[in-house]
């Protein structure tokens, strides 16, 4: 028996139509050298219509890929609106990928147009000759005639292209399963793999982001979207903002602690979202340059586990609540949200806040052991997390990768436990876990304990070969400016905090932990630096 | 180009699986003569599985209709969970319909099973011989052998049927467009019409209900669901609660002000939802029996417009915020939510709170005049509201009703304006508006102004024939206990509040405004009482 409900598709076109009319006074505020510039959703709607007409005029009339090579700013928001709403596919190029990866993904996605920020041209122009499917480069913020382009590639100015185009566009009704946007994983192993979001998945994910127990994005919010729009769609914040009329603060290229701190103190965001490394750097900066953080009702941290010491410090020193969320490019990204049950003691609540949070209703989860057997949710048994749901990828674009899927479930590569109540506690990436004498040691747990030491700014733990135990942990430590600490002191600090057999013997002091393109610890690089004998390792008894 | 997202359907089965595992400690608290009884979501999950097995055992193996004839209570919640999740269709019979309407809808929907509360048997048993498709009657809370049933109808006890059934059920993966539940409109004109919700529409609507700017249902909530589960699915609250693990307080048959007041003071709900008449009655009761209402973060009022005087009184006297929402059985029901933009003056904010609120992203709206022309959203021009979206009905079950649809849009029968920002201000039902000398007078606006007088408890305005103006308003007034007021005084009170030509000449004082089965003013009955000459009408100059 069929329902009598209307069969209207979920579409970015409706999201754009809605956000720019009902919430026309909401704003996108972009930071710049000369301070913030503001544009309303109403104005954005007109400019998105102009962009769509302009793209039609240069031949985008189907599902061609329109790429962006941009910071978080209002022009990028216009591309987020216009490209999927007109029926084309938005491909957000990750500016932090290595050159050969960028070439690979532009070729693999067959990008036809790239819209690029002028400030990023030095990274992009050397690659243009290798991106053979690109016909048009549209420059935001610079004179297109200054750009040297290879033959067959036309360079256009963004504002010149929009000028004079009609300010309305009749956004078509599309199949909600059609592609709306795509994003490639940064690919620490093998080639980057493309995830293609649908109008449906983006719509559902936006609703999830606005649910009170998830990111609670609301009309009264001003969301500081630090997480890049080229990284898992800025965790869905641009579309969530359109769905409820929340204003957005976009930092453009100003991702350093000083300008972020200025944005927070002058623009007074109510919420913010970024990876832990951003908050760590900001915290270090705030120690010398304190500001008022009281406008922040919530800070969402994801991408990798947030050190509990950082969560505690932000809460105790600045009254700011950090909420963890777990997700990945493949999961749109919202998979969990770290809001514990009400009515717990402060310590129990904090303990649960240090988990990756609880699964949301649209995401089914299971833990699987090495043999593929499903494990119970007892908070103890460790397995790989597999997930399933309408905003979770079921394949990669033109890339089979059968080892990433298990009977329709996504294998996340994340390893951990699930406690009763659905609290996910990730202990490691499956490739980072340390296998010592048949037992597993979580690199992340060791890092968190080391980082709880007041002299430590950053710590990364990798497994290194050991003749007796197969693998043992090596701790790479970044010490805070102006203080000193020895490996002996740190080992002693860990004693009693971790099981005795887990206490690391090997320590190294480094200037900085290498990071991936998306700001996570790059343990692959750390491992190869160690393998090359380029780390000074102290070995304790 | 297709997306790479998983094609997993939205389904009540997943909602049940999720809510009863991740949020197994959330509760449904049902009121009874001997106080509240509590059952956890975890226990409900087991009982819902038992119910599904029991229904299979009596032949429910496809999309047969399983009807309920029940108050809001935990057994009704079990039916909400089990029936759609197993693939059958839940038909919530509205206990307040007239007998011939109940017969009509049970026959029309071809109900196979009815689950009924013992306390409602006196209403139901006389009708059983007329419900020819029903094979099983399942009684909650009484001995089935006490029930006299017509031949061919087997009477079963709910608990006896569940006892011994397995406590797990492998909820099937269904097509999300399949029917999950159905609800008939109360049908003030013609036969009741059936709206059939899909798994998809219920899922999307539940997400909407949990969005911060809508009903903000969250894990930390205890929602007092006064609005009946047989009336537009209790506004979606049962499924929204499952989606986030909010606890529910169910009043069963205790809908009078005294027990509701006791539920609020002893169980301390954080949110509540009901039609305005419930709040009016509660307000009158509270005057003599004040209680602490401070646990209520939000009270959602819908079904008909809430008198501004009542909103102001609750806010000023009890600190309780009333939020209006507009919807109907045909819209699942959430169409708008009354949360104004931030940063307004208190008076401007209150003024916008008195509208029906703003449309939510999933609902497209337009105003259409008598000639079918679309009107601008200028807050002035009055037309009929038409809506479109994935949780809005596009037809009625086995009933064409072409006059209810306009090129794929639902004609709501509601008349009003839409202001910039999408604020809907309903002035009337299209059939209740008073056409006086070519101009329209809103019966609802007049009612609100009359009800702002301190001596008035209720006021209903209908159009009555007038030889000169075609129609003129007649005001039916219910005066508060222990006070008196004259028609002259009330007319004088209106002077200056409404345009002079709108001032009503005709007044009548009555004991109570007749109500429809769902608690709305029954103006059809008031009109016929007047037409029969059974109202004492005072006619002023």
TrEMBL record, chains A, B:
Residues 30-397 form the AMP-dependent synthetase/ligase domain. InterPro entries: AMP-bd_C, AMP-bd_C_sf, AMP-binding_CS, AMP-dep_synth/lig_dom, ANL_N_sf, ATP-dep_AMP-bd_enzyme. Residues 445-520 form the AMP-binding enzyme C-terminal domain. The keyword Transcription regulation does not apply. One of its GO terms (molecular function) is ligase activity. Keywords: Ligase. The keyword Transferase does not apply. Pfam families: AMP-binding (PF00501), AMP-binding_C (PF13193). Gene3D superfamilies: 3.30.300.30, N-terminal domain of ligase-like. PANTHER family: LONG-CHAIN-FATTY-ACID--COA LIGASE, MEDIUM-CHAIN-FATTY-ACID--COA LIGASE. This is Long-chain fatty acid--CoA ligase. It comes from Rhodococcus sovatensis.
């Amino acid at each position: 028996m069929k329902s009598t409900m209307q069969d209207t598709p979920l579409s970015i076109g409706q999201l754009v139509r809605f956000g720019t009319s009902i919430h026309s006074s909401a704003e996108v505020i972009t930071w710049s050298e000369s301070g913030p510039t503001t544009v309303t959703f109403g104005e954005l709607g007109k400019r998105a219509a102009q962009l769509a007409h302009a793209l039609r005029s240069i031949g985008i009339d189907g599902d061609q890929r329109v790429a962006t090579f941009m910071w978080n700013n209002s022009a990028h928001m216009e591309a987020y609106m216009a490209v999927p709403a007109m029926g084309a596919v938005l491909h957000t190029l990750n500016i932090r990928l290595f050159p050969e990866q960028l070439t690979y993904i532009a070729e693999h996605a067959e990008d036809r147009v790239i819209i690029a920020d002028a400030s990023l041209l030095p990274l992009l122009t050397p690659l243009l000759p290798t991106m053979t499917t690109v016909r048009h480069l549209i420059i935001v913020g610079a004179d297109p005639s200054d750009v040297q382009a290879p033959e067959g590639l036309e360079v256009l100015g963004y504002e010149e292209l929009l000028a004079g185009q009609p300010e309305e566009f009749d956004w078509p009704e599309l199949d909600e399963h059609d592609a709306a946007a795509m994003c490639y994983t940064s690919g620490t192993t093998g080639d980057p793999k493309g995830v293609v979001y649908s109008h449906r998945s983006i719509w559902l994910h936006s609703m999830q982001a606005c649910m009170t127990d998830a990111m609670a994005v609301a009309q009264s919010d001003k969301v500081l979207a630090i997480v890049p729009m080229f990284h898992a769609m800025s965790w869905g914040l641009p579309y969530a903002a359109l769905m409820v009329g929340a204003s957005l603060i976009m930092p453009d290229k100003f991702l350093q602690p000083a300008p972020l701190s200025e944005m927070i103190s002058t623009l007074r965001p109510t919420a913010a979202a970024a990876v832990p490394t951003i908050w760590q750097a900001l915290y270090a900066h705030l120690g010398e340059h304190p500001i008022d953080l009281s406008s922040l009702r919530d800070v969402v941290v994801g991408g990798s586990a947030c050190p509990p010491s950082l969560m505690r410090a932000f809460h105790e020193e600045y009254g700011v609540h950090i909420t963890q969320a777990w997700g990945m490019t493949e999961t749109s990204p919202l998979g969990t949200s770290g809001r514990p049950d009400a009515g717990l003691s402060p310590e129990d609540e904090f303990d649960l806040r240090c988990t990756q949070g609880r699964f949301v209703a649209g995401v089914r989860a299971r833990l699987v052991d090495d043999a593929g057997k499903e494990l119970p949710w007892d908070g103890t048994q460790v397995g790989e997390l597999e997930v399933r749901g309408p905003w979770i990828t079921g394949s990669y674009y033109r890339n089979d990768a059968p080892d990433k899927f298990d009977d329709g479930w996504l294998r996340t590569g994340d390893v951990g436990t699930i406690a009763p109540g659905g609290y996910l506690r990730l202990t490691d990436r499956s490739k980072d876990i340390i296998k010592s004498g048949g037992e597993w040691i979580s690199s992340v747990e060791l890092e968190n304990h080391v980082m709880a030491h007041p002299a430590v700014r950053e710590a990364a733990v990798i497994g290194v070969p050991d003749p007796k135990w197969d693998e043992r942990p090596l701790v790479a430590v970044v010490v805070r400016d102006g203080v000193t600490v020895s490996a002996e002191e740190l080992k002693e600090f860990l004693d009693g905090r971790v099981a005795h057999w887990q206490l690391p013997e090997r320590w190294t002091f480094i200037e900085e932990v290498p990071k991936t393109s998306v700001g996570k610890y790059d343990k692959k690089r750390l491992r190869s630096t160690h393998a090359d004998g380029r780390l000074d390792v102290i070995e304790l008894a």
